Amino acid sequence: MTTQRHNGSMQAAVLYGPSQVAVETLPVPDIGPGDVLVRVAAATTCGTDLKVYLQGRHARMLTPPSVFGHEFSGTVAAVGSQVRGFEPGMRVVSNNSAPCGRCYYCGRGQANLCDDLMYINGAYAEYMTVPERIVRINMLRLPDALPFPVACITEPLACVLHCLDLASFAVGDTVAVNGDGPSGLMLAAMAKRRGARVILCGRAPQRLRVAQQFGIEWLVNYAEVPDQVEAVRALTEGRRGVEVAIEAVGRPEVWETTTAMVRKGGQAIFYGGPPGGTSMRVDAPALHYDQITLQGVFHNTPTHVAQALEILADPTLPWASLLSATLPLARLPEAFQLMMAREALKVVILPTPQAD
Ligand SMILES: [Zn+2]
Ligand SMILES: [Zn+2]
Asked: Which ligand has the nearest atom to the CA of 45?
């Protein structure tokens, strides 16, 4: 017998279709010899989960009915017979994916583009199985002082760090970020940490205030200016434009605005995932004569996951300001309402009320 069985049941959110979620009693999942069973202490909502909730599915990650949620931290409840380095009671966080380590892209240091990226879902539940590959590559022990809800930010922060590694800017250069969601705020904060002069464009005053808590001085509320591109250019010397502009919304029209902000020789980076079937318009002569670089970016790599956890352990950064509310699992749909109304950045979901 290789599968370890656990008695008992748990509460878990099950996605049935667009905006259809039910919290149900399911059996605690079994684990194989290389797997780890985690008792989820906290899970956080993310823009991807909101998309999955509204669409009722995700092309790459899940088909309903399915448990879902992918940002979580918790305590090891059980380990398979072949697991090394983890034991029951340890506080851990895991990325929501792991690359294969064997394909063309993994061999070229582009693990985020792995042909066989393995995903996990099901963080909105009391227990979750982390499969062998993810345990081995992308599960990490938490520093003692790091609270569970903040640790949940590891995955999205790893994506942010990966994005910035693809950005070409020097200390003192100007980086513009378009989007005031959690990713936009983290991109701005981390670009500043790397020495950039950062301009954040958003429209929600409470989110721009969070940006200020992260030390971002240059804020453009695009709802209040006649021309967002001009407003950003006006903050650069001679209105020349920014060295790097990053799109963190996921809408092709914002991709176009982002491209229009960069200086000659600059770089536009597309971080937000746009809807399927959409396309963007590019001013071809500008691309040529102004020598603009267009850079797509997707997901993260194991190196960035480890770096993210280290940075989250820095208590001088106001991570908690990204966590707008805390709700029990049974009220998960409310979390998505809060996000849709732009009243919440991330919402912390507590699957086990007695955790922590
Ligand atoms: Zn996420
Ligand atoms: Zn691979």
From this structure: 1
Q: Is the pTM of this model over 0.90?
A: yes
* CA proximity to 235, closest of 176, 178, 181: 176
Class of domain 167-296: alpha beta
Q: How far is the CA of 269 from the centre of ligand 1 (A)?
A: 19
**Superfamily for 9-157+300-350?**
Medium-chain alcohol dehydrogenases, catalytic domain (3.90.180.10)
Percent of residues, the chain, with pLDDT higher than 90:
91
Domain ranges of the chain: 9-157+300-350, 167-296
**What phi, psi does 294 have (nearest 5°)?**
-105, 125
Ligand nearest the Cα of residue 181 is: 1
Q: How far is the CA of 294 from the centre of ligand 1 (A)?
A: 24
Distance CA 137, CA 316 (A): 28
Q: Does the pLDDT of residue 353 top 80, yes or no? A: no
Closest ligand to 302 CA? 2
How far are the Cα atoms of 105, 136, 146, 340 from residue 301, in angstroms, in the given order? Answer: 11, 14, 22, 29
- Is the pLDDT at 236 greater than 50, yes or no? yes
Number of the ligand closest to the Cα of 101: 2
